[in-house]
Structures are given as C-alpha cells and as structure tokens.
Amino acid sequence: MLDMRETAGVRCDRAERAAERAADRQDLIRIMPAKGAQLEIVIIGAGVIGLATAWRTAARGASVTLVDPDPASGASTVAAGMLTPVSELTYGEEALLRLGLASRARYPSFVAELEELTGRETGLRTDGVLQVAFDADDLAYLDDLRRFQESLGLAPETLTGREVRGQEPMLAPGVRGGLLVPEDGSIDPRRLAPALLAAAEKLGVRLVRRRADAVLVERDAAAGVRLDDGTRLPADRVLLAAGPWSSDIGGLPPGTVPAVRPVKGQVLRLRTRTPFLRRCTRGLVKGSSVYLVPRADGELVVGATQEEMGFDTRVTAGGLWELLRDARELVPGITELEFAEVTAGLRPGSPDNAPVLGPSALPNLVLGTGHFRNGILLAPVSADVLTEMLLDGTVPEQARPFTPDRFEVTA
Amino acid sequence: MREQAARADGAPGGGDRLVIAGEEFGSRLIMGTGGAPSMQVLREALTASGTELTTVAMRRVDPAARGSVLDVLRECGIRVLPNTAGCFTAGEAVLTAKLAREALETNWVKLEVIADERTLLPDPVELLDAAEQLVADGFVVLPYTNDDPVLARRLEQVGCAAVMPLGAPIGSGLGIRNPHNIELIVEQANVPVVLDAGLGTASDAALAMELGCDAVLLATAVTRARHPVAMAAAMRHAVEAGRLARLAGRIPKRRYAQASSPWEGLSTGS
Q1: Which of B43, B110, B236, B243 is catalytic?
Q2: Which of B64, B117, B228 lies at the smallest CB-CB distance from A310?
Q3: CATH class assigned to A129-182+261-349
Q4: Would the annotation count B197 as a binding residue?
Q5: Do A7 and B69 touch (CB under 8 A)?
Q6: CATH of the domain at B77
Q7: Number of structural domains, chain B?
Q8: Contact check, Cβ <8 Å, B62/A261
Q9: Is B253 a catalytic residue?
Q10: pTM score of the predicted model
Q11: What is the CATH number of domain A4-76+191-260+351-407?
Q12: Which of A242, A360, B162, B206 has CA 20 to 30 A from A76's CA?
C-alpha cells in the first residue's frame, strides 16, 4: 500500500503524477478489434454502474455480457437517490464535486433517453434540495458550508428559519435557518435500476445470473471471466463493477484493485397519503445528519447511518432509533406516518471516498467501483467515461483524477 | 511521577518520553479517529500528527472488516487504544471493553461512560464503578473524566493507569474551560494526566502541555478541520512546543515592563 512517510503533504503532486500515468496507461488497452468485428465486453456486477455502462456500450454496438447472481438488487434497492453534489460538498473533495456536477447535468437527458427506450418512469426530481439547521451550532456549520460553496462559485440561497418553514411548513418551529440549492434533486433508484436493466436487455445485453469467481488472465492481460460453476466467458475487455465486492474477485495480481470496503447504511421508508414534505430535505440535528426524500407516490425515505461493520446488513435497533430520533426532531409530524420498511445496504467505499474509474494495471481490465455514497448521482457520467475507456481505450479528461493508479505506491 | 521526570530531565530534549503503565511513547499526542472525512485523509493526518497511540470506538467498527480504520492503523504501525464511546452504563462499558480485549488482543482501554447525548459529559458514578471493575479484571484503564480533581484522584486510587480530564465537551472545540482545575489535577496526580476532549486549535494543545499535562488526546479538532493533515501537523508541533515550554519553565508574570537588555552602560555612539 502507500508508503507512510511519502503520503503526508504530497497530495497535489500525486494527482499530477496520476494524470501522467493515466496518459501512459492508454497503451494498456491492447486489443483492438479487427475492422468490423464486434468487441466482446464482460461486465462483473449489475448495480447501477454496471447496468448503465452495459446499456451505453451496447448502444454503441459492443457485444455485452452482464454477470450478477441477482441484478439490480444491491445498494440501489436501499439508496435514497439524492442528486446532491452541492448540498453534500465536503472539504478536500473539490474534484468529486466537479464530477458530481457533470453527472447531475447529464441526468435529464440520460433519464429522457432511458424512459423513451423502456417506457418506464424513474422518478427524477430537479426541484431543489433544502438543507436545514436545527440549532445554533448546526447553523454555524451551515454558514461554514455556504462560505465554502461560495468560494467555489456555487450560489445556494440562504434562508432564515421563518423562510425555511415557509418552504416546508412541517418542519419543527425551532429550525434556525437553511440553504436551498435549486439545482440539486433526487431520483428513485428502485425505478432507475430496473429501467436500466430493461434498457440493457432491450439492446441485446446478455444477462448471466451467476457469481463471477475470477478474472481470467492470459498473456498478462485480462481475457474474460470465470463463473462460480466453472464456465469461462472470454472477453476482449472486462469491467469490474462489483461494488464492495470488487476487491474480492479472484485471479488478479495483488494490488490490481484498490481497497474498496463495504460501508453499511440503514435506511427507513415511511408512507403518507397526504402531501407532507414538498422537496428533498437534509437536516443537521444537534450535529448529526438526517435526510428525508419524498416521492410522488407518497413514499418518504429517511436515512442514513454510516457504519464500518464489514459485510453486515442487519438492521439494528440503534440504527433505526437514531434515524427516527433525528427525523422526529426535525419534522415532528412524521410520527403519524405509516412505517413501511427498514433496510440496510453496503456502499462501496474507496480510501478517498471518490470512485475508482479507469484502466487497471492489468491490461484490458477496467475498474468502475468505489462510488461510496454517490453511486446513483455518478451513474450517468461513470457510464459514459467507462464506455469510452472500454470501447476506445482512452481516458476522458474528466475521469483523470479518478483513475486507479492514484492509489499506487510511488517511490 | 511527572514532576520528577521533569526535574530529572532538567532541560528539554532527548529522553523525554511518555510512560503509561510501563510502556514508552515518543509522541505525546494521542489521536482519535472519529469524524475523518475519508480513510485516506485519516491515514495522512495520523502520519502528520506523529502519533503512536490512537483510539477507535469499538461500537462503531467490526474488527474483522477489511479496509477499516483498524487496517489503516495496522498499516501505519500505530498502536490501537480501543474506547467504549457510546456507553451510558458501567455494565455496557465493561462488556464493550471485554469484547475489545478479545477482538484486538489488548488489555488497554480508554474508558468512556457518557451521561447524556447532548453534552457527552462523563457520568462520574458509572465511570468510577466501571474503572474499578475493569482494573480488577486486569485491564489497563485510561478513563475519560470530568475536569474534577476529586474524581481524578478517586480514579487513580482505584488503579487507573492515567487520568484523562476533559478541556471542554467532546467535539466542542471550546478549549480548556477550567485551566485551574487541570493544574490541580496535574499537581496531585501520580499517574500521567492526558488532556482529553474539547480542544479546538493548536494553542489549546500547547496550553494543556504548559499546564503540566503529560499528553493530549484529540480527534475532532483535526478530523473536522478544513485541512485535517495540516492541522494534525500543527497539533504535533503545539504539543512539542507546550511540553518544551513546561520543562523550560516560564517566567513569572509581571504587572509592568522590564527591559530585556539593561540600560546601564549602553554606549550612546556619539
């Protein structure tokens, strides 16, 4: 892994060097198909990233096989689907902000194409996201966030407590103030993932409902995938998009896949028959965060915990209680809503929270994983850059900060 | 013990090491891991801090999970100090400490028993009770305590290996609210005193060391800083500076000025 003595204070350098190496690495996509021949792509993992990339690559004429024992069943069934690159801005993650903004901008056309192809609705909402401070300490935090947003040229609308409640009358009377980001929004991942699957199948993507055991390596390059029943699927190029399981795939030289770990999130769903919240609302409540995402059909998604518990998807009393505690402080009326369900999912967390997008050290193996809390937001842009990497063998400019070699040891 | 160490050294510099329960540490900065924006930032901040001992909340990690904060500490060669954050009763804290001992094969524990979620202040009665039970069970107990000299003394009397009074509530960044009490705790203690919680910036850490604390424990001040790695380096220097200042001995405070160079015998140059 990283050399400790080298890592402190060399972050800027590292990004530059990663960009240089990414440029060098373009020759790692070695096999160019004969003219007219169809490129054979195998994608490991049918979550939103694998599905969206399957659709995009098939649309460009590749022959695509998706390998997943249970497609569209992972984090996308748990995730709330917030499209909030601005509202969730974090210090030190400016590059991720730019990628998030690019992806958010692609969403309307991405969804329009998808809905037209499949005839399915995805619940995209682009009516803004409200971020609310519960007490004075929370307001100080929001002020700090706003200054950071403004320093990057973003312009959230600042609202007083009364203005916030004018927007959302169900909020607790004591809320101190908030920020409105008109361009942020949400989508329903439970509609998005099946729509992507339908689109992929419509374009002839082959779906293999098995677990991928290993990447096949021939002459020091990826040559396909071996399934858990021993079947070998040959491929010109392999995309590894197996979320938190990406680091566990067999057959690869050590260090080919950066450490991607599962970060557990518990999310609950309430149901209302009468209009309740108008828009996606994120709250800071006495220092802890909670979000409430309303859907047109009356569902209200409340999330989410963030736990380092390995591959554990148990729902816990404490997780549920923390969510309800903060949600009730922020919106007292939620106690009257119907409790629909509570689920736990696993986010694929990379060491720096940013996605891992690009050619690996093993020729013909491309990585599309580590999207952490942003898998839904980043699906359109990830699918486009991964498609370019898989089919053209080039690394698009906007993906340069996210190539896997940023984690490699530098002497 | 601490004052003797200062006298034995006589001067700042080499050989001044933190000793807790017979174990030596070159760094007097103990770090926490809570609030870090990412594993990579945490790794870089820990490295920049120079810490040799770092706390991990056992209720929030699975010791077997890959890529967790424990892996980061292992790779950095930093000793893990499990803590019982999130426990409200002595019973929970004792159970959590035992699970940590089993999982991490260490009998050291940072003991936290919290009274309520709003202030996260220690519950003195439960804390003393848990400390007594854990010491009896063979643990090396480092209790997070109020800045109360009497409670600090009682914790030492039940056999704690250090006492760790707060500067201010956890995560508040308010600095040392009662420096006088910290001095009283330092004066009477025969075990190391670690200023734990509430620090906001480098001068707070330096002050803790100038007051005579043996070490400083902090997390939020670094992990939630705008640039965590730079703040970690600042804290490292502050702790070193404060320690050196303590050993060097500050000048008495005066009401009026006293020229640093004498006026007598100055050449007028005419």
Answers
A1: B110
A2: B64
A3: alpha beta
A4: yes
A5: no
A6: 3.20.20.70
A7: 1
A8: no
A9: no
A10: 0.85
A11: 3.50.50.60
A12: A360
